Amino acid sequence: METPAEQPTKKIAFFATMAPGDTPRLETMLGYALVAAAMKYEMKIFFALDSALVTKSQIFEKLEAKVRDRIRECVKEGVQVEVCSASAKTFNIRPEDLIDGATIKGIASFYDYAENADITLSWS
């Protein structure tokens, strides 16, 4: 029988598409991610379409404080924060525009992660 330390880390993949102004959905998704982090899940949040704007520093600073705090906490807890490269191109988001801890990746990166995730959640 495996002890907790020997058990493989479980993975959760979050796929987000909601607009930056959709505070209730953002708060809920980020809250769920923080609970999973406390449970020691490995996680990736992939921001696509309008949600990519959440990671642009200029827009991030205009979000409600609770949303900003939750995103920062997710990054601090090791959640991988990725921005869809196609969305980044659409919204002219460059790597230097991103908040700390976010990276731009292609959709294949998310597919690869989600394929091996234990749980995949979509937020739109």
Report on the architecture of this protein.
With 124 residues, the protein is of the alpha/beta class. The chain has a single domain, classed as DsrEFH-like (Hypothetical Protein Ychn, Chain: A), CATH 3.40.1260. 38% of the residues lie in helices and 21% in strands. The protein has helices at residues 23-38, 57-60, 65-76, 85-90, 107-115, and strands at 11-16, 42-47, 80-84, 102-105, 119-123. A five-stranded parallel sheet has the order 4-3-2-1-5, with helices on both faces. It is globular, with a radius of gyration of 14 Å. The N and C termini lie far apart (40 Å). The model has no long low-confidence stretch (mean pLDDT 94).
**Strand count, sense and closure of the main sheet?**
5 strands, parallel
What is the count of distinct domains? 1
| Inertia-based shape | globular
**Remind me, CATH topology?**
Hypothetical Protein Ychn, Chain: A
Straight-line distance between termini:
40 Å
Key structural traits:
Hypothetical Protein Ychn, Chain: A; 5-stranded parallel beta sheet; single chain; 124 residues
Q: What is this structure's SSE topology?
A:
Layout: E1 11-16, H1 23-38, E2 42-47, H2 57-60, H3 65-76, E3 80-84, H4 85-90, E4 102-105, H5 107-115, E5 119-123
Helix pairs in contact: 1-3
